[in-house]
Design a protein that fits this description.
This protein has 109 residues and is of the alpha+beta class. It has a single domain, classed as 2-Layer Sandwich (Beta Polymerase, domain 2), CATH 3.30.460. The protein has two helices and five strands, in the order αββαβββ. Strands 1-2-5-4-3 form a five-stranded mixed sheet. Strand 4 and strand 5 form a beta hairpin. 21% of the residues are buried.
Length: 109
């Protein structure tokens, strides 16, 4: 594998810049520009984390980036107290992985 330069990350950085300017109303998130893990391998993109937020924040981001609602996956991580929502998609020609971590809600019997 050849070493990459910042030039290789330009598409992802431009997509992030577009999000910051066009969608400033979105809830705060932790965003990494770099290689993201997808089911079929690695790709340059944006990894968007909504840590310990509300699931409504996830939906706001998903909707704003026009990510497919049928592609959302729910996972129960190692800790039984948190749930994870994830959706992979594309925004401005760049792969986006959107994740939200939220407390599990107990359902009354």
């Amino acid at each position: 594998m050849t070493a990459q330069t910042m030039k290789h990350r330009t598409p992802a950085i431009l997509a992030l810049s577009h999000i910051l300017t066009a969608l400033p109303h979105l809830p705060a998130a932790d965003i990494e520009v770099g290689m993201v893990s997808l089911p079929d391998g690695l790709s340059l993109g944006l990894d968007v984390h909504l840590p310990h937020g509300h699931l409504a924040d996830f939906e706001a981001w998903r909707e704003a980036l026009n990510l497919d609602p049928t592609a959302v996956v729910w996972r129960h991580p190692v800790s039984a107290s948190y749930q994870v929502l994830r959706v992979d998609g594309e925004y401005a020609g760049v792969v986006v992985v959107l994740r939200a971590y939220a407390p599990c809600v107990e359902v009354a019997a």
